[in-house]
Specification:
single chain, 567 residues, alpha+beta, Beta-Lactamase, Helix Hairpins, five-stranded antiparallel β-sheet, 51% helix, 19% strand
């Protein structure tokens, strides 16, 4: 029914109005032509009547004969200059016309007022019909009026016009109903298609229409749907990629809307906050850690865009930003960075101290030699020896620092192209430590080769044995190398004194022996055990110290051989 009214109002109603307007104009035009024709007739009758009238008696006789013999009535009225009605065959004039009586008859009123002639169409109350009247003043001053009633065929009556208009409306309505019934199914199908498109349905059926217009609309919708699907697929692909990128970031991301409700949180954000964040709930209701609550509360203050706080044992850097009406929080765990900064400051201080000590010693002896030429030969030789050992210690310190830096920058996935021979490593170890007097070095090993860098294996052996010989008060140092599958274990035992338990972890720190050495007279660079620890870590192992049965200490370094390269 709606389609009928739409079709009727949009298509047929304007056409109907045009038809009715055309018919009306035709009727008015025809009626005007007919009216002008009748006016000419009335003028001719008036002229004839004016010629025939000689006096009042003639006029009365003439009019009476005309009334009796004419089938089509023509009414005549004659009024003398004094207003006396001499003859009136229409029967609507009083016997004496006064000024106010003329006003009821427009044609008489106009001539009475001075017009030469006048026409009018009005209802004759006496005859009960519409009449066309023509009035003009005669030469003697009297007024002669001629009236012609409207005949049935003169114009189309109003009710005929109404019937015609009703017929046109009915015909138009039937045509509209028929056309609407033809397009109703097609329109309904198009409506179903648009509903499915608006609902975002992936699969939409587009029927074939016979009507060219409907077919064109259907084709346009089909192309639009195809383009929308292609764009949707691209957006979904980009969104998945974007989600993967956000999930892989080491930075936590939390987004909230204007009402404080969480709209997005990535995996790292949940790990940092430590709570199960529910999207759609207010952020503060998702938090349980007091430090996290205080962090977001302070960061939400106006003018605050960055804070560094300790939350759940981590040092967090939180940054706030605004985008598309939402607030975005970026959370970065900078605990390692803070520790590194602390370590860097400590390392710089230690290096400065360690370099200053031998340099000060060298500069002191050199200055004394340069400014005191009267020194005896023996004292001079002692100063020169001290300068030599100071420069040697300084060179060893620089070498150890470079080696430690090289180890720290290495990745654990490095390959071992050539295995290390244990016999060669042990022989070089004995040669390196042969200058140490008063110490006996006992070494046991299975022989063969291990898939460990030769320099790394030798560094572990030299640094552990050198540490034992420097700080042990005993005369013997025992070294044993064992293999078990891929595991290589290096054990070094000395005869004491025993390292206190609370310091067994500290001795592997950089430069520890400088500040808390067991034997300050034989102090080394303080980096040897730290180097051993890093080498063991590179091979997936570790190094520990514990008391032994000799009353001293046992250093145990565990390394795992690298897999043989397949390339």
């Amino acid at each position: 029914m709606k389609n009928f009214w739409r079709f009727f109002l949009i298509t047929c109603l304007p056409l109907l109005l045009v038809v009715l307007l055309t018919v009306k104009v035709a009727f008015v035009t025809a009626d005007g032509a007919r009216e002008r024709e009748r006016e000419e007739v009335l003028k001719s009758v008036w002229t004839l009547a004016d010629l025939l009238i000689e006096d009042e008696e003639t006029a009365v006789n003439l009019f009476e004969k005309k009334e009796e013999t004419t089938t089509r009535q023509i009414y005549l009225s004659l009024i003398d200059p004094a207003g006396k009605v001499i003859v009136d065959t229409s029967g609507e004039l009083p016997s004496l016309m006064k000024d106010h009586d003329y006003a009821d008859f427009e044609e008489l009123f106009q001539v009475k007022g001075g017009e030469r002639e006048s026409f009018s169409v009005r209802l004759n109350t006496a005859l009960k019909t519409m009449v066309l009247s023509y009035a003009a003043r005669r030469a003697d001053g009297s007024i002669l009026r001629v009236s012609l009633p409207e005949g049935e065929g003169d114009i189309i009556p109003g009710w005929w016009f109404l019937i015609l208009m009703a017929g046109i409306i009915l015909t138009t309505a039937v045509s509209s109903a028929y056309a609407a019934s033809r397009v109703n199914i097609a329109v309904r199908r198009l409506h179903e298609i648009t509903d499915r498109l608006a609902a975002g349905k992936r699969h939409v059926h587009f029927p074939d229409f016979r009507d060219p217009t409907m077919k064109s609309i259907s084709s346009l919708l089909r192309r639009t749907h195809r383009l929308m699907r292609e764009e949707q697929v691209r957006l979904e692909r980009r969104n998945r990629l974007f989600q993967k990128v956000l999930a892989s970031l080491d930075t936590g991301i939390v987004s909230v809307d204007g009402s404080g409700r969480v709209t997005y949180v990535n995996k790292r954000g949940k790990e940092i906050i430590g709570d199960e964040i529910d999207v759609g709930r207010p952020l503060m209701e998702n938090l349980s850690d007091p430090d996290a609550i205080l962090l977001f509360k302070d960061l939400g203050s106006e003018g605050t865009v960055r804070l560094v706080r300790r939350v759940r044992g981590m040092v967090l850097e939180a940054v706030k930003g605004e985008a598309e009406g939402e607030t975005i929080y970026l959370l970065q765990d900078i605990t390692r960075k803070e520790r590194f900064d602390e370590f860097k400051e400590e390392l710089i201080g230690n290096i400065s101290h360690e370099l200053r000590t031998p340099l000060s010693l060298i500069m002191g002896y050199a200055e004394t030699l340069a400014t005191t030429p009267s020194l005896d030969e023996e004292t001079r030789r002692d100063f020169i020896d001290s300068i030599y050992w100071g420069t040697k210690r300084l060179s060893a310190l620089i070498d150890d620092m470079l080696e430690l830096h090289r180890l720290e920058s290495m990745d654990t996935s490095f390959p071992v192209e050539e295995p290390a021979n244990l016999e060669e490593a042990v022989a070089e170890l004995e040669q390196t430590l042969s200058e140490r007097e008063g110490k006996n070095l006992s070494i046991r090993h299975p022989g063969g080769e291990v898939r460990i860098h030769y320099d790394h294996l030798l560094s572990v052996l030299v640094n552990l044995c050198d540490n034992a010989m420097k700080y042990s008060t005993g005369e013997n140092v025992y070294v044993e190398i064992k293999r078990s599958g891929r595991q290589v274990t290096v054990t070094v035992d000395d005869e004491g004194p025993v390292i206190p338990e609370e310091k067994r972890e500290m001795i592997f720190r950089r430069f520890y022996t400088v500040s808390s050495s067991r034997n300050r007279k034989r102090s080394g660079t303080g980096l040897g055990l730290s180097i051993v620890k890093h080498i063991c870590t590179l091979y997936g192992g570790n190094v520990t110290v514990s008391p032994n049965d000799l009353g001293g200490n046992r250093f145990t370094a565990v390394l795992y051989e690298k897999e043989e390269s397949t390339s």
